[in-house]
Amino acid sequence: MENLILLADAYKYSHHKLYVPGTTRIYSYLESRGGLFSETVFYGLQYLLKAYLEGPVITAEKIKEASEMLPEVFGRDDVFEAARFQYILEKHGGYLPVRIKAVPEGTVVPVKNVLMTIENTDPKCYWLTNFLETLLMQVWYPNTVATLSREIKKIILQYFKATASEASQAGIDFVLNDFGFRGATSVEAAGLGGSAHLVNFSGSDTLAASTFAKRYYHAFRAPGLSIPATEHSIVTLLGEAGEAKIFKHVLDTFPEGTVACVSDSYNIFRACEEYWGTLLKDQVLARKGTLVIRPDSGDPVRTLLKVFEILMDKFGSALNEKGYKVLPPQVRVIQGDGINLQSIREIYAALQEAGISAENLVLGMGGALIQKVNRDTQEFALKCSYAEINGEEVDVSKSPVEMDATGALRTSFKKSKAGKFKLVRDSDGYKTVGLHENPELPDVLETVFENGKLVKDWRFEDIRKNAEI
To answer: What is the CA radius of gyration of the chain?
Structure first.
């Protein structure tokens, strides 16, 4: 997978012949055309540039490998032309003659705006712009995870502002924790998607995410933080009769700091009432730190309400300044099962209705955070909008007519933009305009990659600041 020449959709290899003769420049742009959320967090391009495009990525060995494989793919010898890549190797030393501009990473941009542009810088490499579409389009994934994570943070902020104490607001970055490593399709996906979550939060068990942030975004320190915690293999080791003994062992092992213990191996309600809330109550309250009790099955809303009812009966509760009940600081709850965008809304609404502060609860989110998204979640597309043909400048676009469910014809949402663009920001926010429009407003798009070299190198801490709510 290190051979860039082979990292494109197969049909792309015929395009150097299919562009009309005289084509010397192709300019394309990336946008989120709409989707689930009204704005998008731009993140992840720098990884793709560093991992796949930076440096002399075209070599004789890679050309040879492609020359052997692609005739097998097409069953003919007149599609792939090794000479196209040989030219890049000889003329440019294997560096890609393209220019990529993009919004600063972490920037939150309303949908239907340009996020990135790409164009060839060598007229003979007009075909290269959209050849790179396949790889560059994969930026949809970290963009979408970062966007989803940020939208969840908005919900959490809403309920913390309504029900939680002011002192607890400082802990919001640890409310949503990434549990998605094992459910990701690959280590690369876990690292890239997991680091996208860390643009908004600091809680994560996906260690690959911190590795990515440090390796590709100069994170000063690991941005994903975690705590000691049990799993069912630990808690069930002595059987149902030995569960309380295991719980005590957890408290004895970590007498200070935060520790989490999964407590639904047999009966979550008995565990809360008889073990944590009675047998081990004094030890829990004597700790210099917090025990986080984890239910891991059943309906999240109903289970949590019952768990909080038991815990507040056993450990007591106080009313914060907003009039909502809060457990003693030594006890909190984490819900990591069945967590998604909708259930998070339902859980916090139910807690508020029951008079329970949001500060009592933290969340763990796995596949729904870094796996249950796709390119259509935010409707990402990369389209050609400008070309130069025989010295003539040509604005390019598509405007499909489609049939709706009633049989009526309408213009598709897939209608694309035409021309060369810049992204500007005025008092109304971001908007996409023609390259020479609004000359008084600077272009938010920055050149990040040119002729095989990284021009802009974003640091993770700066990206987090850009995405702040």
So the answer is: 27
Give the residues across from 401 on adjacent strands: 411
**Six-digit token pair at 54?**
């930076």
**What is the per-residue pLDDT for 413?**
86
C-alpha 358/C-alpha 380 separation (Å) is 34
Which pLDDT tens digit goes with each residue over 204-250? Answer: 999 999 999 999 999 999 999 999 999 999 999 999 999 999 999 99
The two beta strands, 23-32 and 421-426, are unpaired
Q: Determine the 3-state secondary structure of 206 from DSSP.
A: coil
Element (H, E) at 411: strand 409-411
Contact 398, 375 (CB under 8 A): no
pLDDT above 80: residue 300: yes
In this predicted structure, what is the pLDDT of residue 452?
Answer: 98
322 token code pair: 């907003």
Q: Specify the pairing of strand 98-102 against strand 453-454.
A: unpaired
Contacts of 64 (CB under 8 A, 6+ apart): none
pLDDT at residue 90 is higher than 90: yes
Condensed to tens digits (0 to 9), the pLDDT of residues 362-395 reads 999 999 999 999 999 999 999 999 999 999 999 9
* 3-state class (DSSP) for residue 381: strand
What Cα–Cα distance (Å) separates residue 2 from each residue in 58, 62, 312? 10, 9, 56
**How many Cβ atoms sit within 10 Å of the Cβ of residue 213?**
29
For residue 1, is pLDDT > 90? no
Cβ neighbors of 384 (< 8 A, separation 6 or more) are 26, 27, 28, 129, 130, 396
Q: Find all residues with CB under 8 Å of 466, minimum gap 6, and list them.
A: 104, 105, 106, 107, 108
Q: How many Å apart are CA 198 and CA 210, to the nearest integer?
A: 8
Q: Exposed, middle or buried, 350 (CB in 10 Å: 0-12/13-18/19+)?
A: middle
How far is CA 468 from its chain centroid?
15
pLDDT at 255: 97
In the block, tokens 């490499």 appear at: 125
Cα–Cα dist 175/362, whole Å: 4
List the strands of the sheet with 446-450, edge to edge.
Answer: 392-395, 380-389, 23-32, 114-120, 98-102, 446-450, 453-454
Average pLDDT over all residues of the chain: 97
- Phi, psi values for residue 432, rounded to 5°: -95, 130
